[in-house]
Structures are given as C-alpha cells and as structure tokens.
C-alpha cells in the first residue's frame, strides 16, 4: 500500500480536526496508508518531510498555507516523493496556480486521482540563508504588506487582511533605485517593488503577473513596478493588466525580463518576501531549479 505523510498546520485558517478527518478518509478510501503529523512551530514541516524521505514514504501532503507547503517542498527537492496540496491557509497561491481545488476534501481527491506534474522552483539566497519558492519572491512594497499584516487578521479576514494593509501603507509608497542583473545583463530601474515570479497568477485565476509565465518552462520572470503615488498605482495596475513591455527600464510603470539567474540590489535596502513570508532584505540572488519537485495536480 502506498504511504503518505499528511502534515497539518493547526494555526492555518481551515485546518479544523473534522476537516482533517475528512481528508484522511478520502485518502484511505483511495488506497493510501496515512500518517498525520501536526506542526508546532517554524521548521517542523521541513523536518517532517525530510523524515518522510528517509522513511520511504511515497508522498507528502500538506494541509496548510503556502509557507508550510514550501517548508515541506524544500525537503523534497531532487527526490521522487510527490507533494500533495491541501489548501488550508490564506492565499494558497501554488494550489490556485495549479488548479488544485480549494475545498480540502476535493483537493485530497486530486491526490487519489494520481496525476503528477514536475514543476520548477526558485532558489533564493539572502543574508547567507537559502530558501525555495514556488510562486514568487519580491522586494519592496509587497514585502512590507506581507510583513505588516498581522497573522490574526489573515486568519479572520483571509485575503482581505492584505487589502487592508495595502490601503494603510499607500501613503508610504515610494520607488527606490534597484540594480537588477538577469543572466549577466544589468539593468538600473526605479521601482516600488521587484517581483521574481515562477507562476503567472497573483490572485488565481483572476489577476496574472503576465501571460506566458509557467512553473514548467525552466525560467523565472522579473516584474518591475514603478509607482510613487496613488495615481501611479492606478496606472501600474492598468499596465499590469495589459501585460507590459519586455524591458525593465521602459518608460512605463511596469517592465519585464526573463532568465535563469537574477540578482537584485537596492538603495536604500528593501524588505524581501518569499511566497508571502518574510525573507530578509536586499540584496538577494535567485536561481531557477528546473523540474525541482513532483506535485499532484489536475
């Protein structure tokens, strides 16, 4: 019988015990032997997933948000274990980009169905630490929003908590000078945020960074947004919806570049987020890891 380790995050928004039980029932009926472990603090998900590798499990399923998911995924890079996504957090952006159902029981049915995709990850090195991301990392305004949104508000309001923080911080919106190196080509740009994206959608399936971004193409996409006021923000959103140009130094509000290796420096130093969690501050480097992990997905 195939074995799956189900990692749950009790602090996530939708991981009540009765729902966990429903997920386990679906997996059992689908022929999986299930072991459940609940995280109690930072780093637990990565530790549990690493132990699953050593103990010859066939899969690791994560019932939680993007942060817990990426902790586990980082331990699966380069292995044959398959990652299962059970959305239980605020954003669940990787699950959304891969069209894994938002309802936990239906997401478990995706694991039972058994269709596997191999996706790229981004490998971020910042302040001497290495972390992986599946959707995006970024420096500037988006990182400030992630850092300054209280966990209790995310639990209560979901994505609405981020919207509230955005409005609170709008008066402090200002571009900084960034030096961005993409596969050896250096650009200088004024930007309020610089995003390195592995997936296309920031609010699946409604808002895209850009058409053509894929976690299966062996490339990362850089999105540079220059805004210094509310009016600029409106114009930048318009440019994003039009999917912009291919030059980070263009005269518009949004620029793009694409490559395998990216370095970002800024003056002054900017905060960094990685899949919605704090990731340090600039400078940082990112390298794509092609076909890094196996994932159950429709």
Structural write-up:
The protein is of the alpha+beta class and 298 residues long. The protein folds into two domains: 2-114, 3-Layer(aba) Sandwich (Rossmann fold); 124-291, Tumour Suppressor Smad4. The protein has nine helices and 18 strands. α1 runs parallel beside α5 and α2 runs parallel beside α3 (66-76). It is globular.
Can you summarize this structure?
The chain contains nine helices and 18 strands. The protein has 298 residues and is α+β, with helices and mostly antiparallel strands.
From the alpha carbons, calculate the radius of gyration and give it in angstroms: 19 Å
Order of SSEs, N→C? EHEHEHEHHEEEHHHEEEEEEHEEEEE
Globally, the shape reads globular
Largest sheet: 10 strands, mixed
Q: Count up the helices.
A: 9
Instruction: List low-pLDDT spans.
Output: none
- SS-based class: alpha+beta
User: So what's the CATH class of the largest domain?
Assistant: Mainly Beta
CATH topology category name of the largest domain: Tumour Suppressor Smad4
What's the arrangement of secondary structure elements?
Elements: E1 2-8, H1 17-29, E2 32-38, H2 44-54, E3 59-64, H3 66-76, E4 82-87, H4 93-97, H5 104-113, E5 116-126, E6 129-133, E7 136-140, H6 141-148, H7 151-157, H8 159-169, E8 176-182, E9 185-191, E10 193-197, E11 201-203, E12 207-208, E13 220-225, H9 230-242, E14 254-259, E15 261-267, E16 271-274, E17 277-281, E18 284-296
Parallel strand pairs: 1-2, 1-3, 3-4, 4-18
Antiparallel strand pairs: 5-6, 5-18, 7-10, 7-16, 8-9, 8-15, 10-13, 11-12, 13-14, 15-18, 16-17
Helix pairs in contact: 1-5, 2-3, 6-8, 7-8
């Amino acid at each position: 019988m195939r074995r799956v380790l189900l990692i749950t995050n009790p602090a996530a928004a939708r991981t009540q015990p009765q729902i966990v039980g429903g997920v386990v029932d679906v997996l059992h009926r689908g022929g999986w032997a299930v072991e459940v472990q609940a995280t109690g603090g930072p780093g637990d998900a990565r530790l549990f997933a690493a132990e699953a590798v050593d103990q010859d499990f066939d899969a690791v399923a994560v019932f939680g948000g993007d942060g817990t998911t990426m902790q586990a995924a980082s331990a699966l890079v380069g292995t044959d274990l398959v990652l299962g996504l059970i959305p239980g957090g605020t954003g669940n952006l990787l699950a959304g980009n891969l069209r894994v159902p938002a309802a936990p029981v239906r997401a478990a049915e995706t694991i039972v169905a058994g269709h596997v995709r191999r996706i790229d990850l981004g490998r971020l090195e910042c302040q001497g630490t290495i972390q992986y991301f599946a959707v995006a990392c970024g420096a500037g305004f988006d990182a400030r929003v992630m850092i300054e949104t209280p966990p209790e508000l995310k639990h209560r309001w979901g994505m609405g908590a981020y919207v509230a923080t955005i409005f609170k911080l709008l008066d402090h919106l200002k571009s900084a000078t960034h030096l961005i190196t993409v596969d050896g080509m250096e650009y200088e740009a004024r930007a309020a945020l610089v995003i390195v994206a592995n997936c296309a959608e920031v609010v699946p399936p409604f808002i895209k960074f850009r058409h053509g971004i894929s976690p299966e193409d062996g490339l990362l996409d850089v999105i540079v947004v220059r805004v210094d006021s509310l009016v600029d923000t409106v114009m930048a959103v318009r440019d994003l919806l039009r999917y912009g140009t291919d030059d980070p130094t263009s005269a518009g509000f949004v620029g793009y570049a694409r490559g395998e290796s990216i370095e970002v420096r800024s003056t002054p130093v900017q905060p960094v987020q990685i899949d919605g969690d704090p990731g340090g501050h600039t400078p940082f480097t990112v390298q794509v890891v092609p076909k890094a992990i196996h994932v159950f997905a429709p």
